Amino acid sequence: MADRLYIFDTTLRDGEQSPGCSMNIEEKLRVAQALATLGVDVIEAGFPIASPGDFEAVNRIARTVQGPVIAGLARAHDKDIERAGEAVGPAGDRARIHTFIATSPIHMQAKLRMQPDQVLERAVEAVKLARNLVPEVEFSAEDSGRTEMDFLCRVVEATIAAGARIINIPDTVGYMTPEEFGSRMRELIERVPNSDQAVFSVHCHDDLGLAVANSLAAIENGARQVECTINGLGERAGNASLEEIVMILKTRADRYDIEMGIDTTKIVPSSKLVSQITGMPVQPNKAVVGANAFAHEAGIHQDGVLKHQKTYEIMTPESVGWTTNRMVLGKHSGRAALKARYEELGVTLDADQLNAVFEHFKVLADKKKEVFDEDLLSIVADDQEVASERVKLVSLHAASGTKDTPVAAVELEIEGEQHRATAEGDGPVDAAFKAINSMVEPNGKLLLYSVNAITSGTDAQGEVTVRLQDGTRIVNGQGADTDIVVASAKALIDALNKLPDMHARQVHAQYSGV
Ligand code: KIV
Ligand code: ZN
């Protein structure tokens, strides 16, 4: 019988730690819902002690998302563990605390300033406490890749004895090579006397581009849980990418006789959702989910694929959800069909949300001949954001031409008050940004401005990503519209709304009642 591999998704925790990728609670809920639809076994929903917002997000996910186990991360500190237990508690028998402590010499000496025996004792105490709070405890020996092997065996044996049922072996800094990491996993499972009482897990970072290869090596050598993220998001160079691991195991089932609970046709919609929410574009040549992953340019390739798809395609685009994402609804479609399509995309809407989204959909369907899944995702993102924003776009008028100085007039609602400003710029987008920035502060430094057509055709919605930096904080904003200047203004406003101290510039405060 084939072995079962558990897919542990950490997009909402390690993925969210990527610069600029922080998500608000509504966004996290949408991603969690999509992950459940995708069929992951475990959702690491966040790090509850990190902030009240993190706690709230984990807690709401534990209360509302059905299906997967819901995990909360905790350092090996009592307060972290208690907070994580409280956050994931509502998931009942699907609640997991994931506690960790570093075990490599450099981390113990330089970061923790603890002796190995103290670290071991803390790890055991942490697992015991967590075990009293939730049915399932996972323990990670942070920086396992650089941990001395005898000590790693001692820590793993002791934490299993203390009640951890999942033992995670992270290559925290992406330092390992596949052969090295695979044999480390094998040696550990063979040497630890009680290893049969735990599922061994792997968590790899991509600093040298080896996260997926190292994860596979660990799976080949006995790991039965793999920690990964959608689009490979994560600290620094990211984590192992879920879509790549899953599709390798599926496409090479001849080599890996392993079962997973993933519905692979939901991979592309999940990737698009995460990219859209985080503002992290997927590179076109990214395996499985990149826009070019199934595009054949060379004539000889096109000829081959037309004669037999398998000449140049080792998996079908449909199997990962590429062509199923074509929207078949048009302006005559009804609410029920729209709701059903959203559910297929992993988005659950209540009656009020559906009404709001439906109105928005009708307006868009009037403007565009075809409405695609990407359009639907951007509608729902827009609607949810607008509901919670401090600054809202009321109107925008921009004019430009070959002989005119570009100018934009923008009207905003800032915390309930109307504000208006006009500015000139190098182009209509520049003018609109200047007008918006003159009404709020701080504005942050513009690090990135990028435009993508969400779908094809000149009536496509443009999706704009804006990245701002204010001090040490980096935020991403996104906006979509068939008018690129409006999409840009929405993206800037979205990013500004994520700057915690952003407020109306005093000089404009009285400029109300436009
Ligand atoms: O990379 C790492 O070691 C982690 C742990 C918290 C599992 O993210
Ligand atoms: Zn990590």
SSE arrangement:
Elements: E1 3-4, E2 6-9, H1 25-38, E3 42-46, H2 52-64, E4 69-75, H3 78-88, E5 95-102, H4 105-112, H5 116-133, E6 136-142, H6 149-162, E7 166-171, H7 178-191, E8 199-204, H8 211-220, E9 225-228, H9 242-251, E10 258-259, H10 267-278, H11 299-307, H12 335-344, H13 351-367, H14 373-388, E11 391-399, E12 407-414, E13 417-424, H15 428-437, E14 440-441, E15 445-453, E16 462-470, E17 473-481, H16 484-497, E18 503-504
Parallel strand pairs: 1-10, 2-3, 2-9, 3-4, 4-5, 5-6, 6-7, 7-8, 8-9
Antiparallel strand pairs: 11-12, 12-13, 14-18, 15-16, 16-17
Helix pairs in contact: 1-2, 1-10, 2-3, 3-5, 5-6, 7-8, 10-14, 13-14, 15-16
The structure holds 3-methyl-2-oxobutanoic acid and zinc ion.
